Amino acid sequence: MSVVSLQLGQCGNQIGHELFSVISDDSNGPNRKKYKQCSDERFFYESSTGELVARSVLVDMEPKVISQAIAKASKSGRWRYGDKAHFSQKQGSGNNWANGFCVNGPRHEEAVEDMVRMEIERCDRLAGIFTMMSVAGGTGSGVGTYITQRLRDLYPQSFILNQITWPYGAGEVIVQNYNSVLTLSHLYQLSDAILVHENDTVHKICSHLMNIKHMSISDINKVIAHQLGSVLQPAYTADSPCHYNRNPIGELLSSLVCHPEYKLLSLSNIPQMSSTSLAYSVFNWPGLLKHLRQMLIASARMEEGIDWTVNVTSGAESVTNSKHKSFNSSLANLLILRGKDVSTAVTGK
Question: Three-state SS for 44?
Answer without folding.
Answer: strand
